[in-house]
Amino acid sequence: WSFKNILHFFFFTKMLNNNLIKRKSVWIYCLLCVLCVLLIFAIVKVIIVGPSDFIDECLELVGGGTKQTWVFLVAGSKGWDNYRHQADVSHAYQTLLNNGIPVDRIIVMMTDDVAFDSKPWNIIM
Questions:
Q1: With 50 as the cut, is the pLDDT of residue 73 above it?
Q2: Where are the transmembrane segments (predicted)?
Q3: How far is Cα 76 from Cα 86, in angstroms, rounded to an integer?
């Protein structure tokens, strides 16, 4: 079996004859196929094991079994118009604390212009 025979076996012959697959694009297509197989494997693994256990297993594989989670939260906006961004970061901080992430492993960057605004009535206007 040659590579061309395998392509004929798995794909339509018209696809090759219409010059839709060239030499360079064959390798890209094969790479995309491998990535799709890995994605399908990951989805099946998440369904079987569960999302949180899957993330823990991936962290153990990558980190060598040590779980040292660091979190970096950033609210990139300021003012009452974008209050929701700061509220989201504050909510994420509380959620992380409630799920057992220690305070010394959470880094938060956000402005305090809404909490300590000298003109809080601006929210109405």
A1: yes
A2: 26-48
A3: 8
